[in-house]
Sequence to fold (385 residues):
Amino acid sequence: MKSVTRRLISEVPVGIFLSSGLDSRAVASMVARTSSARIQSFTLKFDGSYDESVEAERISKEFGFDHSSVSSSDEELAQMWFTAKEIMDEPLNDPAVLPMMLLSKAAQGKVKVAITGDGGDELFLGYPHMKLHKVSLFSNELLSLGLKPFLNSWPDRGSYFGLGFRLQRLARGLGVSDLPKRDLAWRGGFKWYEVQKFLETATLGEFELEKVLEELSFEFDNSSLGNSMESRLSWWYLRTYLMDTVLVKVDRASMAFGVECRSPLLDLDLVELTFELRNRGLLSEYPGKQMLVRVVEEKGFALKRKGKKHGMGVPVLRLLKTVLNDEFEELTNLDLIETQGFFDVQAVSKLKRDFYSNIREIRKEVWALFVFQGWMQKHLERSTK
Fold:
């Protein structure tokens, strides 16, 4: 409650970015109980399997918010891409920056501060694949040899967490005994052993990614925040994905439209208390986010304990094959790739063939290339003016 109260202190209007997820609902319940002002809430409305606006609207009514559903059609997401190119001072491989910008644009002029649920998955181990790290079979190399061809046989059709996406993602990490590497394989883009092949070594020289991974693995094994698997995983996500991607995305997207985002779940006292309780073994009875659920329910709000997890998904494959296809083809033209000298032309050509075939699950790799090329295009234009 204190973490929410602190973030509601403001001389300007405060709203909330609302999703249907547990983190967002937990924060919203505390905001509703704490604030005496009429809170404005904002939720994205997607097309197809990516949409969660109906449930979010129901939640807003339960808490008495003044609610707005923000359209994020493919055309609007595509248009926001061109704005994103203008504000990104470094490449950011998270397509969720586009809907986050749409959300912030809708809030502009209505609120100056927006409360978010960022940090809950990292602090309370909410990502589904975190549980898989506890299963020792997933590091078995013999098992992976038999399962990988089977799992990779399902094509990725581009839907939100579709079967092909999930099975091919699972296959990526099978047989990898080192937990940080396995985790990166499950949630990352290019696999660490593919990066060198994709880069044009004649121009860039040897890229010592293995050395970087060794340093990260050492930090993971020797985290000062605790020795348990749960504490190390939480530290790993707070230190990498949250700090280097999620918060950068939120900051760039929201501040582009003059909105300051604040997350109660990243309150220092709350983070320290969570790690202390976990390290003392006092959270074993409440795995994952059950402690968060209990705290909220003790304050008088009932939260659903089960339900399909739904993040701020973006139909990357659909966008790049339709409304952003001309831009994609321009930025990944093989003559341009060869002239730049950063990437291996044959590797890019194969990536594009796989992209159009709908077989391999490579949406993160394709988006990473697209974003980098967009960033390069912008900065090359500046350097020639």
